[in-house]
Amino acid sequence: MSRTRTRIKICGITRVEDGLAAVRLGADAVGLVFYAPSPRAVTPAQARAIVDALPPFVTTVGLFVNAEAAEVREVLAAVPLQLLQFHGDETPQFCSGFDRPFLKALRVRAGVDLLQCAEDFRQARGLLLDAFVEGLRGGTGATFDWSLIPRQLPLPVVLSGGLEPGNIEAAVRAVRPWAVDVSSGVESAKGIKDAVKIEQFINGVRNADV
Predict the structure, then answer these.
(1) Is 95 a catalytic residue?
(2) Catalytic residue at 11?
(3) Beta bridge partners of residue 9, listed in sequence order
(4) Backbone dihedral region of 166: left (phi > 0), alpha (psi from -120 to 50 degrees) or beta?
(5) Over the stretch 61-119, which tens digit does the pLDDT of each residue have?
(6) What digits encode the pLDDT tens for the residues 130-168?
């Protein structure tokens, strides 16, 4: 019995050449960070240049953290994003307000009720599950206890948090997520992707899918 292919998103793309490398190596989606404190943040102009260079059938994802609605709309007016990803304390109503499908990112630790979160954000296309690190909103390089993920979550799971070529096979086999999301785990420096690491990561996902 064949398994559904695990989708792959490479997040924190800051350069055209990194976006093209990710897609050439097999990524399904690229993530663009619109959060100024992040070392992977891009301006709308930088993001537009990356998106304009991509071939067809690649999902472009915009990441926001507690942004004002006006800021999100300003980015959407400049960059043709297909999916939004919210990593802050946004409400379901806020996330649904931009005429785009969205993912809600949750920082997982003991005591977080993921089933209730899935109910609250039932309009989301999926839940992106990341590690909880005090004061940080993603890109931490930290993993979390995958056994905290309920098997019966009613929304697709996008697994994130500390994924890299050395642990991705185990992660996919343990969780069987719809998709995986990697940023710092395939970098040579913050915001600079390493094509060899991307290839190793994607090969690991494919091996786990067999």
Answers:
(1) no
(2) yes
(3) 29, 181
(4) alpha
(5) 999 999 999 999 999 999 999 999 999 999 999 999 999 999 999 999 888 999 999 99
(6) 987 766 555 566 789 999 999 889 999 999 999 999 999
Contact 49, 99 (CB under 8 A): no
Catalytic-labelled residue, pool 18, 117, 130, 181? 130
CA–CA dist 9, 181 (Å, integer)? 5
Gap between the Cα atoms of 71 and 100, Å rounded: 15
CATH architecture of the domain with range 7-209: Alpha-Beta Barrel (3.20)
User: Nearest 5°: phi and psi at 78?
Assistant: -105, -25
Structural domain spans, the chain? 7-209
Which of 11, 18, 117, 181 is labelled catalytic? Answer: 11
Terminal-residue alpha carbon distance, the chain: 10
C-alpha span between 50 and 116 (Å, rounded) = 36
